[in-house]
Each structure stands twice: as structure tokens, then as C-alpha cells.
Amino acid sequence: MNMDVRLTTLCDNLVGSLGFIGEWGLSILVECGEETILLDTGMTDSVVRNAVQNGINLSRITRIVISHGHKDHTGGLRHLFQTLDTKLPVIMHPEAWAHKYAARPESTGSRMHFIGIPHTREELEYLGASFTLNREPVWITDQIVVTGEVPMKTPFESIDNNLFVKIEGEYKPDRIPDDQALVVKTSKGLVVILGCAHHGMINTIMHAQEITGEKKIYAVVGGTHLFRAGSDQIDQSIAKLEEFKVAHIGVSHCTGMPASMALMQHFKDRFFFNHVGKVMEF
User: Does residue 165 sit within a domain?
Assistant: First the structure.
């Protein structure tokens, strides 16, 4: 079978073998044709360290895509650019730069915790980042697209109510308009690569179908944001994935063990943990 797309996970909460490191975050290297795209960068230096362990030369990266502006997906940008010492385009939504916070229990000492991008735009541009800010889908090639904003359509998916943006000193609910995914059209259908899917895994898949005109979903890989979901949302998500006839479902990061176990029990050999060190070819 000719390889349409190759995915290598460089950051995740879980590791698959000795020598790799894990952290709360996500980064997936996507190779397709002449493009080598890094979706997200983890929180610290895990991408750089795991690339060395995996024998991957990060200088092959042609561009970076940021799924949303949380630090567990953007914190590794500084380490990456310091290592590469070169200029690279970075595709992201303008609202990724918002001052993002999460409400935590008072027992932690401070109710609001900053969870946004931990670097300034000026610093990253000095290191080599060239930002392209878009709300709409961005076609990188005829085969690869960044979804842009994902509309909320399903009745069972919702945005977390503990996330806020700080605007002129006031905390306002963050609807996370910057949440987006990377989609690759292959000969067997779409490969949908999720960052966190804050707008819902199923909403993201349906949006991918709409913008590409391709109904067949071959694989869904990445963070599904089901770790806070109840059994009803998990069950309805599984039913929709089955309706889409998804051939491969690989979960990462914010999926959570209860949802992962439910997906594994249902999809059996179609399911896999998309942990650090995992390499998949579609």
C-alpha cells in the first residue's frame, strides 16, 4: 500500500517504550508528500527530546500548526525554535493569543490559573516564528487543510464552563473559537488529527467532511476531550464514529481512561493508544 500520511506522536501524557518522556500535552508530526507538519508542540521540551530518541530530524519540519492557544499545546514553541534556529511559518487562529485561564478549586490557593501561550509573540518571532492568523480553513496543499473554527452542532457536545479569557481585567467565558484540527485527504478517506477537540470530536469530524467534500472518515487520531464527558456523550460519540465507519481511532492526551476503555471495548482492533513513540501510516 502506498503511504498517504505518516503520523509520529512526539508528545502525549503516555509513553509507549523506554527512553521517551511523557507530559500533559500533545504534539504530532504529520508527513504527507513534501510537507512535514508539526501539529502542536507540547508544554516543555518533550518534542525535542522525544524526536532525538526517535531519530527524527526536526529540521525537516516545513510548518507548524497550532490547534488552540493552551500552554500544553504551545509551551514547546520556544524550545523548538531555539533548537531549529531557523524561520518557520506557524498557522493559528488569532484568538489563540487571548489571555486564557482555567478556574480551579480555591484549595489550590488561587482560583484562576493562566493556561494560555506562555511566550510573547515578539519573542517567538525573534526566534523564527512567522505567524499566519486565520479564522477560516487554511489549505496547505490540495490534500491537507487546517479546519479553522469548528461550529457547534451536535446536541451532546459542549464547551467546558471552567475556561475563561481575561479582557480588560475581567474574566469572561472562553468559547475557544481558536479550537481547530488538521485534516488529510487520503485514498481511503479523511485522516482527522485532533488537538483537543474542545468543540467536540464529532463536530470537528463533521466540519472536516463539510470543508473537504469527502464523507468517508478513515482515521481519527489525537485528543478527543472526553475526559470530562459523561457516559451519554461517550455512547453517542461512539455511535457517530460507527455511523462514519471509522477504520482507525487512536486516542491521546485529553481522552481520559474511562472514555478510552469504552472506545477500546467497542472498536477492538480498530482502536489504539496514540502515545509518545507511536508511528502510524495511512
Answer: yes
